[in-house]
Automatic annotation (TrEMBL):
It catalyses: a 2,3-saturated acyl-[ACP] + NAD(+) = a (2E)-enoyl-[ACP] + NADH + H(+). Its EC number is 1.3.1.9. This is Enoyl-[acyl-carrier-protein] reductase [NADH]. Pfam families: adh_short_C2. The lineage of its organism: Bacteria, Pseudomonadati, Pseudomonadota, Alphaproteobacteria, Hyphomonadales.
Length: 271
């Protein structure tokens, strides 16, 4: 199934229950995070949208000994009501939420952002990529009477221009702002809200961006560590944020990209 990588096991998340939203296949960042959480003893409920995703994801869920998969369409309030009601009925309360959902139309992920972004495309990107996080955070918080941790996934395109990332970069910038505001609102309840900004990785999301494959090579060559962003690193950071180790961390966007985000100009040949 997923590529082999060092998967530390233990009981850091023993007794913790939570939701992971956004697993699409074995290469999903959400799946890498799920594997790491399960290896540390967490109990996870997975949401999915549609029968195709259910068939693709169920064998993965089975492989880590989990059995809770719940349909949830983040664009439909009734579907979200039903999903979170089912989780409440099953567990009563939860300790964490992982949100890894984003979408923009293929035609809008190439060429010019100004020329190719339609009103409907913008609305849809913001609804699925940003509002779904706000909505899910609100619903999850209602199931966290003892506090907890919420995290989402972002990308450097929120801060800097990336070829063809276009409206998704605008949406990710909004997502990062939403992370800070949610952290402010939910912090008094003992709920920590943070984001991980992962470097380019071989996922369905990257495949949907024109020229996406070249982003991985650039990320590796320009990064401080001269290596690809690793699933091990991203999942490890998520474990840190979702576990008691992440205490006192709130409102952060943590970059896990081998140091790519700090580079202004790459090392020049011969220097």
């Amino acid at each position: 199934m997923a590529e082999d990588w060092n998967l530390p096991s233990g009981d850091l998340m023993k007794g913790k229950r939570g939701i992971v939203m956004g697993v699409a296949n074995q290469n999903s960042i959400a799946w890498g995070i799920s594997r790491q959480l399960a290896a540390q003893g967490a109990e996870i409920a997975f949401t999915y949208q549609g029968e195709t995703l259910e068939r693709r994801v169920r064998p993965l869920v089975d492989s880590i000994g989990m059995d809770t998969m719940i349909p949830a369409d983040v664009t439909d309030d009734a579907s979200m009501d039903a999903a979170f009601a089912e989780i409440k009925a099953k567990w009563g309360k939860i300790d964490f939420l992982v949100h890894s959902i984003a979408f923009a139309g293929k035609d809008e992920l190439q060429g010019s952002m100004v020329a190719n972004t339609t009103r409907e495309g913008f609305r849809r990107a913001m609804d699925i990529s940003v509002y779904s996080f706000i909505d899910s955070a609100r619903r999850a918080a209602e199931l966290m009477p003892d506090g907890g941790s919420i995290m989402c996934m972002t990308y450097l395109g929120a801060e800097r221009t990336v070829p063809s990332y276009n409206v998704m970069g605008v949406a990710k910038a909004a997502l990062e702002a939403a992370t800070r505001y949610a952290a402010r609102d939910l912090g008094p309840q003992g709920i920590r809200v943070n984001a991980i900004s992962a470097g380019a990785m071989r996922t369905l999301s990257l495949a949907g961006i024109k020229g996406g494959k070249s982003l991985m090579g650039t990320g590796r060559d320009w990064s401080l560590l001269k290596e690809d962003t690793s699933m091990e690193g991203v999942a490890g950071c998520a474990l840190y944020l979702l576990s008691p180790l992440g205490r006192s961390i709130a409102g952060e966007v943590i970059h896990v990209d081998a140091g790519f985000h700090v580079v202004g100009v790459p090392d020049l040949p011969g220097e």
